[in-house]
Automatic annotation (TrEMBL):
Gene: pheA
Function summary: Catalyzes the Claisen rearrangement of chorismate to prephenate and the decarboxylation/dehydration of prephenate to phenylpyruvate.
GO biological process, any: L-phenylalanine biosynthetic process
Listed name of the protein: Bifunctional chorismate mutase/prephenate dehydratase
Lineage of the species this protein comes from: Bacteria, Pseudomonadati, Pseudomonadota, Betaproteobacteria, Burkholderiales
Compartments in which it is found: Cytoplasm
Pathway(s) the chain acts in: Metabolic intermediate biosynthesis; prephenate biosynthesis; prephenate from chorismate: step 1/1; Amino-acid biosynthesis; L-phenylalanine biosynthesis; phenylpyruvate from prephenate: step 1/1
Amino acid sequence: MTDKLKPLRDKIDAIDAQLLSLLNERAKVAQEVGHVKAETNAPVFRPEREAQVLRGVAERNPGPLAGTDVQTIFREIMSACRALEKRVTVAYLGPSGTFSEQAVYRQFGQAVDGLPCASIDEVFRATEAGTAEFGVVPVENSSEGAINRTLDLLLQTPLAISGEVAIAVHHSLMTKTGTMDGVTVICAHSQALAQCQVWLNDHYPQIERRAVASNAEAARLASQDASVAAIASEIAGGQYQLGVVHGHIQDDPHNRTRFAIVGKLQPGPSGNDRTSIVLAVPNKAGAVYQLLAPLAQHGVSMTRFESRPARTGTWEYYFYVDVEGHAQNPAVARALAELKSNAAFFKVLGSYPTSLY
Ligand SMILES: C=C(O[C@@H]1C=C(C(=O)O)C=C[C@H]1O)C(=O)O
């Protein structure tokens, strides 16, 4: 056994030596890029370029490594190279251990400084004030729909959406002891309680459910009190040394949350982009139908349509619309110009590379 392993491990050692030297060669070039950017005050993080690199490696990947695994590796290589230029600070809905934090690392890699915030409002404020260069906020969940607070804040903010990332949301029921003995209350964020309600009705209909500020907060409470069970990610549970009673308890096995990256940056086209807009129409018959007609006329696909009641009383609803393509794409630009001319309110929230996941 040892005789057979030794030459193979020697081979791996030799390949690792080459990888190490190539990685550092790459890092030095990234440092040079950093110097060029510093001269012109250009932004360090370029999501459109990173999206192109990640799509490129998956397309060219000969295997046997899976394309998504190759992307994860390159995401970290770019994150480390970027950090040599400058470390990026990213605000997110904390505390540590939330799905929002996972979204930060999925988008930026590990070489970032995360800034946990107490609320979605605070994520926007920290990013608007420049305390963080970017903020990561949840936009919609595949089971529960839109995150209304985020939609309302997107309407007002001067920030632009510069990226999106989708995270698989798997919930676990966890306690300090790893059993349900003596548990009198199940704590979680209201969204998580809603996403697990059928399962909870089946398994623990008698136990009180309590909504708390975040799933990570629920995990923290459970770590201090054996009568509290938490619904959270296993990552959050691990941070508080909780034992898993049941895993994957979300009602929809494909439960996902989509997050938006907000910041002052407006990325250029990456070749596979999405544009998010908000608009409102005067309250009259056929207005919504007419509003969207320019998209079809210019061959622009709509990928999302969401409405929110306008609370100003002036218009009935705000419509949040996502379309395929960058706002600099001529067909998209023409469609947007027409939408704008028909709308009582119109705002481009941003154009950004489509999520890889
Ligand atoms: C090196 C650059 O800066 C950053 C790092 C990148 C990388 O390591 O490939 C890509 C884009 C930027 O976020 C660049 O802009 O090319």
